[in-house]
Amino acid sequence: MFTLKLNDTKLLNNTIGTIAEFITDATFNITNEGLKLVAMDPANISMVILTILPSAFTEYQVNEPSKITINLDGFRQALRRVRAGESLTLTHSSNKLNVTIKGSSTKRFSIPLLEDEQVERKVPELDFKVTIEMDSKEFRDFIDDASIVSDAVALKAAENLLLLTAGDTGRKVDIELKQGSDILVSMNIKEPASSIYSVEYMKKMAKAASFADSVKVNFSSDYPLRLDFKALNQAQMSFILAPRIENK
Amino acid sequence: MFTLKLNDTKLLNNTIGTIAEFITDATFNITNEGLKLVAMDPANISMVILTILPSAFTEYQVNEPSKITINLDGFRQALRRVRAGESLTLTHSSNKLNVTIKGSSTKRFSIPLLEDEQVERKVPELDFKVTIEMDSKEFRDFIDDASIVSDAVALKAAENLLLLTAGDTGRKVDIELKQGSDILVSMNIKEPASSIYSVEYMKKMAKAASFADSVKVNFSSDYPLRLDFKALNQAQMSFILAPRIENK
Amino acid sequence: MFTLKLNDTKLLNNTIGTIAEFITDATFNITNEGLKLVAMDPANISMVILTILPSAFTEYQVNEPSKITINLDGFRQALRRVRAGESLTLTHSSNKLNVTIKGSSTKRFSIPLLEDEQVERKVPELDFKVTIEMDSKEFRDFIDDASIVSDAVALKAAENLLLLTAGDTGRKVDIELKQGSDILVSMNIKEPASSIYSVEYMKKMAKAASFADSVKVNFSSDYPLRLDFKALNQAQMSFILAPRIENK
Fold first, then answer.
1. Domains and CATH numbers, chain A
2. Taking every pair of C-alpha atoms in chain B, what is the biggest distance, in angstroms?
3. Which chain A residues have a beta carbon less than 8 Å from that of B149?
4. pLDDT tens digit string along B189-209?
5. Which end of chain B is more exposed for a tag (fewer CB within 10 A), N or C?
6. How far apart are CA C227 and CA C239, in angstroms?
């Protein structure tokens, strides 16, 4: 059983909204260490890893660890009803998640719990040759640029340079990001790497830019991509995406 | 014949827009007491009662009482063409309603009159056990909340408490409004009452919140609902809605 | 070969956006006198004539006159990716138009050149009895008003008066513009004239109001219409539209 209270629901709205791009029913683990979720999308191409820390809540009280599975759509609709100045409380009764919104009136949304049919997911340990931390909004824009001309984007890292390329015979987009650019936090390229990923998945992941200022882009040649979005003392949202195999 | 002039068309836009949610062709009675309409929706489940007072107009001149039937769509499109600083004049020629908009240029929209095929409607006299006056925007929000989970909403009034409930076995919304809340103007509960109404109809009615600050919600057990929206010295718009009979 | 640089892309966005309403592939002539286009729409009912002057560019360098044909959609999408503070450079390599956007990163969009299959268009010389210069946004609004009730608009000019009429047996719009109105720049009526044009085409042309403050409306009885939109020292966009023959 738990009681989680929030006075600002922006973070919850953003993270739940982003997860809903990948899955329809979500299983949350709620312990004293925070609210956690690890899920694969139905196509098994990507993994979503979310942690919301207890410090992101106004009140965080967990008597015993809980695992609840709910439909995200119903949860999002309830979240959208919160207005400025109202508080949100999540509690857990036998077969319901109760969302209570308090202002001049009291609104109570009950969302039925579903059976957890998913197997426990383990986050794979990966070894990356390239780690670039950059402005998250710029990253989202890059992916939007790439999505105009192609459904795949090539990431290439050489010494002091990140290159995103999309499209080929017809329209083409090249984006160059050099060491020293304003929008870089850090650029760590152990060895040159080159890999191709789905733009469609990256676009969904890039929505997490709405709650985090920067993103860590991790990859190696023909190897999965991992994106880490972090809001300090609040939440971390990571995504792992399988590479595309393509004739280059 | 009549000449009605307006320098601000917001009220007319709002009321005509709300009526258009219920009916396509409308019959207006224009007398020295104002512009009036009483109409039933095609399904005969709800009644709309509108009065716009002469004092809402900049100029209100009625030589003899007129009754005109027009298509609301054409009227709304003409109203939408008025811009800030322009005046609107409604006049009546043989078989047309003329809408004249004057600014730097003069625009004249002619809307053909239709034959009035509707029988005269009488507003039923009803006796309500519960009358609650509250903030109209909050009321609209409550109905929006309820519409998320169900097509019906239950209104329940007990001592010092109004409860709106929607949904049941699956997702559910409860909204509690207590005596003393900021958003209440008055709460008059002669005896406890409980009734169920269509959310779809209530949503259309709640659009009248755009011209009135408060709404009077009148009902009794398994009895029609009456909503009264009033803009002082300007207009009153009321709706009557038949209750739903449901297994409770 | 050419290098054209812009620090503000609004003008290019607006003009290319308007042309895209008429044609999908466009042939531009780029000479020391500016960037020019003359095109007919596929239905051969209207002509678009665009000139963007060298002075509209931050840098304008043309080594030899070039003629390039591109798909407008691809070009527009690249233009939309420019953000405040970024510069845009257009260059021309063997079979590509390169659009380079420079800010904290460098984005390069390559758009394939198409074969120019269009015959060279000559702008017809026309002799107009009526020339009215007016506020371009008001003109766009008039066309929007007319489009509500009909697919054709009649322009009539008599002494000191321009009349736009649309619709007939049912709904009807009349717009009267008199000598002396605020929204007129000049009104030159050599002889009364009356002609009918397609509202659909005029709506597309009126989009040019977004870059020019005024428009010259030129017509004669049952004769083509010519609209001239001009942004001083920047660009001129003109449209010629065949009259409609209708029973009046």
1. 2-112 (3.70.10.10), 130-215 (3.10.150.10)
2. 61
3. 74, 109
4. 999 999 999 999 999 999 999
5. C
6. 5
